Amino acid sequence: MDIQEIENRLSEYATRETALLAPDASIPLYYQLYRLLKRFIEIGSLREGDRFPSEEVISSSFGVSRPTANRAVQELVGQGWIARERGRGAFVQDKTFAGLSLLSEHLSLTEQFPPGTTLETTFIMRDVIPCESHLAELFHLPKSASLLFIRRLRQVDGKPVMVCDSYLPAEKFVNLGESTLVRGSLYATLEERYGYVIERSERKIVAHEVIDQQVAELLGVLPFSPILYFTGLTFVRGMEDPIEYMRSYVRECVAFTNTVYRPIQTSKTRMEDEV
What we know:
It is a single chain. By secondary structure, the protein is an alpha+beta fold. It folds into 2 domains: about 5-90, Arc Repressor Mutant, subunit A (Orthogonal Bundle); about 110-250, Chorismate lyase-like (Chorismate lyase, 3-Layer(aba) Sandwich), CATH 3.40.1410. Helices cover about 30% and strands about 25% of the residues. It contains 8 helices and 8 strands, in the order ααααβββαββαβαββα. The strands form 2 sheets. Strands 3-4-5-8-7-6 form a 6-stranded antiparallel beta sheet. Strands 1-2 form a two-stranded antiparallel sheet. The longest helix is centred in the N-terminal third of the chain and has 17 residues, at about 30-45. The termini are far apart. Residues about 95-100 have low confidence and may be disordered.
């Protein structure tokens, strides 16, 4: 990717996230910046081999001193997110998430909870937003397109456990909002009201920390607290491009469990395996 495009993406990202930097916090400012820069790489803004913005650009984008930017970049290098090449600059390294799958066949994250759980969904916000560069690429939309952003809070037995964000092409869902959700479910709404039959959902999960101030408040945790962070693309039958990009933030008190059974081998299958 062209370095000018990368710097533009960093500027967009910094405009949204700079308010999270807290000079008076117990966590050193350079380490807060390191976490934001790491997140910038993780959300898909950069790929392996892309040139990383210079310390001067980072300093200017986030409004921090050059030494602070330098220490944050050193931390990225030390953790293996980027590597410096003499005379060329710094480049993004391969930090692909492990190939984990969800612990059941259900498409909805809320269906991961066991029967008997009292699950409540609170509609937090609905907004039409400009389509960021990396999301335009995911949806194969022009940069001038808009996305519908929906944020919901999931509570289990009265305790907040999960914040779910959904991004959808705005032009397809002009009237989609809280009052139009079927049984409080986005996927049920897509299928029953709009005729989009969900075919599959491709997801990733990683141990992370919460850096969105509103998400932290909704979950009842401090910023930079550990969470499970889900991302994914949802596809519908008959369409090549995704219909939804999702992000879900699950607080650390939630555990996903599963029972795995070993296949029973007969004498015949053992003989076939040996052959």
